[in-house]
Design brief:
The chain is of the alpha+beta class and 364 residues long. It folds into two domains: 2-295, Clam (outer membrane lipoprotein receptor (LolB), chain A), CATH 2.50.20; 340-364. It contains seven helices and 15 strands. It has a 15-stranded mixed beta sheet with strand order 7-8-9-10-11-12-13-1-2-3-4-5-6-14-15. Strand 2 (67-79) and strand 3 (82-93) form a beta hairpin.
């Protein structure tokens, strides 16, 4: 592991000092991919806070209320291709000031994905994606892009399809252009521009500008998004990494980040930026050497009455049942203990019978 990290860090350091030489989008994507590979085994705890900045809508939909504030604690472990994701979320909406709690657990043991939220369990054969997976390179980009690693996003439509499926990208084409060097907050950066366009009409729906820092593991330090149908000079989304954290020799993650979305209608009608919502993210801890048993990525109980759904990889229900008793499907088997207990009980019963028989014979 240490040898592999040393080699990859050397690659990253070399690529970060190629500023004077010719560099293109492919070089940057390769640098990002090498950096992402350093996080194939890691564990992190992330706190996110969302705040609605405009007046909430009185009506969103039937039995649906707009969220005005939320705070989430996300604990994510990735280890040897397995992962465990725990999300604890306190949500306040327009119904009142008392936050309600939403807890979710998603596991993948390399074979089957299992998710539990409230009284519902979903089972899927194979890997399933999740918007809450902690991807350091996507922390300030994901809201403007897709739920995939940054190197996958920058590799275009076919790579996104292979990773996340048709539903993730639909009829969108993504083109990437290298814009050159820049300097932000004292960091030397490379700027990429990603254009999302409709394959059928060619219309550009969004233009994503990314500034990446080679000396900080090719992490994005800034992201600005335009919707050219509304304005080419006023952005609809801006985000920034405000602090970096070194978690290993020349291995960096975003320590703090901030994301802000602006009202698209006002951007179009008045050419002004009025913030709609803001989200802040803080990494509380990060460990590059997690060491958990396989059971950590597999086991949870299913209380009686829980609705259990078997899904395919497209999210379609292929089977379901309601749990009648606490399931031990993903817990250590207890039948060996029952057998052992039965054997011990039988031994004591036999000895007791022998003792009683001997006493009866002696009294004759």
């Amino acid at each position: 592991m240490l040898t592999r990290v040393a080699v990859l860090v050397a690659i990253l350091v070399c690529s970060s000092h190629r500023v004077a030489a010719a560099i293109d989008a492919d070089d940057i994507v390769n640098g990002i991919r090498a950096s992402e590979s350093l996080f194939e085994d890691f564990e992190a705890t992330l706190h996110t806070t969302y705040t609605l900045l405009r007046d909430p809508y009185e009506f969103v939909g039937e039995n649906t209320r707009e969220i005005t504030h939320s705070h989430s604690v996300v604990t994510y472990t990735l280890q040897q291709g397995m992962f465990r994701l725990e999300v604890e979320k306190a949500v306040t909406d327009t119904s009142g000031d008392t936050p309600r709690t939403q807890n979710r657990l998603r596991l993948f043991d390399g074979i089957e994905s299992r998710a539990k939220e409230g009284r519902v369990v979903n089972l899927v054969d194979g890997f399933t994606n999740d918007a809450n997976l902690v991807r350091p390179h996507m922390m300030i980009v994901q809201a403007a892009a897709y739920d995939v690693p940054l190197s996958i996003y920058l590799s275009g439509k076919e790579a996104i399809l292979a990773f996340a499926g048709e539903k993730a990208i639909g009829n969108t084409r993504i083109s990437i252009d290298y814009e050159g060097e820049d300097r932000i907050e004292g960091y030397k950066c490379h700027e990429l521009v990603c254009r999302h366009s409709n394959i059928s009409t060619g219309a550009v729906a969004s233009v994503v500008h990314l500034w990446l820092v080679p000396d900080r593991s090719w992490l994005p330090i800034r992201c600005v998004v335009f919707d050219p149908r509304r304005s080419e000079s006023r952005s609809i989304y801006e985000s920034a990494t405000t602090e970096f954290l070194e978690v290993g020799p020349s291995i960096w993650i975003p320590k703090r980040a901030r994301c802000t979305a602006f009202d698209k209608r006002i951007v179009q009608s008045r050419a002004e930026q009025v913030a709609v919502w803001q989200q802040t993210c803080t990494v509380k801890s990060c460990n590059l050497n997690p060491n958990h048993p396989v059971s950590y990525f597999r086991e949870f109980d299913i209380p009686a009455g829980t609705a259990v759904y078997q899904l395919d990889l497209n999210g379609e229900i292929v089977g379901s049942h309601r749990e009648r008793a606490i399931s031990s499907r993903w817990q250590a088997p207890i039948w060996p203990l029952l057998l052992l207990g039965g054997a011990v009980f039988g031994l004591f019963a036999f000895l007791f019978w022998r003792k009683c028989s001997w006493a009866a014979g002696a009294s004759r």
